[in-house]
Predict the structure.
Amino acid sequence: MPRHPSYAPSVSGMSSSLYSALAERLASRPGEVYPLHVGDTWMEPPEGCRMEDFRVAEHPGMHRYAPVQGMPGLLEAIVERVRAKTGVATERSQVLVTTGATGALGAIIGGLVAPGEEVLILAPYWPLISGIVTAFHGRPVPVPFLDCEGPEALVAAVRERLTERSVALYLNTPNNPSGRVLPRGWVEALAELARREGLWLLSDEVYEDYVYEGEHTYARALAPERTLSSYSFSKAYGMAGNRCGYVVGPEEAVAQLRKVSTHSFYSAPTAAQLAGERVLRGPGDAWVARASARYRDTGTKAAARLGVPPPQGSTFLFLDVSAHLDEGGLAGLLERCVERNLLVAPGPSFGPFPHHIRLCFTCSPPEVVLRGVEVLAEILRG
Amino acid sequence: MPRHPSYAPSVSGMSSSLYSALAERLASRPGEVYPLHVGDTWMEPPEGCRMEDFRVAEHPGMHRYAPVQGMPGLLEAIVERVRAKTGVATERSQVLVTTGATGALGAIIGGLVAPGEEVLILAPYWPLISGIVTAFHGRPVPVPFLDCEGPEALVAAVRERLTERSVALYLNTPNNPSGRVLPRGWVEALAELARREGLWLLSDEVYEDYVYEGEHTYARALAPERTLSSYSFSKAYGMAGNRCGYVVGPEEAVAQLRKVSTHSFYSAPTAAQLAGERVLRGPGDAWVARASARYRDTGTKAAARLGVPPPQGSTFLFLDVSAHLDEGGLAGLLERCVERNLLVAPGPSFGPFPHHIRLCFTCSPPEVVLRGVEVLAEILRG
């Protein structure tokens, strides 16, 4: 009997998609449904920047490969934007265009982390980052930060988990899932820690434009020699399906990342890059201003109805529901939600949060989201 | 002085892009240029299946995320096609839609190969496969096959390189770069060997539709329990820039691959998947028939001019130029080519072939390619 071939152990040890069974049940429910577990937007991207707006007659060869680093026009638009937003000297060779921020962080982890090395991850975190580290054979080390009262406590929490194997520190601000915006002093303390300990600083800034309270801090301005910042047209302009994002960092590091991106998705889609350039040079800012106002309004109303503080940024609320759980625990709560056509994301997807749930307040039009929030409020009231 | 953080050693050991310096020089040459080093097509994809043909009015939400496995309509079209072409029982759960065949093979290597394990690769090979194995921390082991006179010699060549660490065997037929189509008996012998030795069989079949002599053999029909077959809309329908392809294999293996794809590019672009479904259900076969006839004609003419046998399949010729090298070696030859506005790909990109070059006869319109071939013929004549 021949041996059956096996799998990469770090991959076979990963749990599969977190919501898929519940999401399938939700899809089969009659009536209006509230898929608030998804992190996406209900808004279509700006007119003029949609796939239908890019024609072969004007862009011959637009279905052919793009250069692996990115198309020159898009790279130039990104460089101009990054310089203007961050004030940091930035050249084209410091930018890599990727298949969304997922592609960016895949290339970052693949390029910087050797098998068995550790990545410190501020938690709660964007759920894919932990799996990216694992899929590329590294070890994710969550560092809970919600209860830290200031930058000293945050640095102490990171230090507690630092080992000889630590090579990078990941932060995501504005934060998915918590809606928190890390204050400048906190990001400064993390940059200082990274410099002192010789760590890469992986700064996931895909919600940079969605800040409702406080101000976004660009980590690269604080430690340009060791920061890789990732961005996404998905979150900024409602283009998640385009699979286009980018990473900015030191030239030598970006050259390493490019080897991994070339060998995991080759290049970002050509039409998506044309759309990215056009949105940056055209209606992007206006679209963001409109989206941001709507997102903020919905987020504020949702938070008020649920009795929690309004989000400072991003498109999410993260609720501690421990007071509302019965013997069925979080699974029982999700079950009660699905029975009422609502799906929310379970806390453990975001780190050691067994009694939290996340909801996205931009995945459906505001009136639908708020009806879903009403259902959730009723369920939590019990 | 703080330590400077480092890179993943397997990635930092990889050489960077092979042609980029020469390609940049080519781009700056005056007059008509012959970029025959690129593997792409000059033909635009079928009308009705271009980005401009997918409108938000008809496809609301078409810029949002697609499901990580692929869109249901595309999965169904792929399943029907695979069943019809291969005769192998195939369910949706055995298919994963990816960012081209590069995304497919990244997910395959990431999901199946643990760090340090070896992948046997029939050489000459598609140049990215070696880097994919390295980027995911595996070890590529080339197995030259051009001089094998039959399946027994091929099996012996593989066996010679088999170790305790071997987990997979990669073949690419129709072959990039050699234009060879592996005869059925050869693929059968490899499948039998894989079964006996407990190896995964990684069958890269992106040129399945481009066979000019002989017949394509679907490896999955021979060893469905251990074969992962990869395909691409890029090569089949001139959609390389769309970044869409797929892999078909055992359900349990595909579930492992999906974890890696989710964590390296998330999902294939949504509009590209709409285009994929439409081309499979519509003008795809007619487009392939037209493209195939043109490709064959150009390939045959190019081969005749260069005095080599016509290609059996794919879009490439692979020439042993050892008789035409002076003390400058292959680098000197490439240099002479660039000075005459021509770029070809160096043999070492495809395995242990220090005296070969590859040219693609479909990357520019036939008359341009043939003018480039004329230049090459003159250079080789010396």
Q: What stands out?
A: The radius of gyration of chain B is 21 Å. Chain B has a mean pLDDT of 96. Chain B touches chain A through 86 residues (CB under 8 Å).
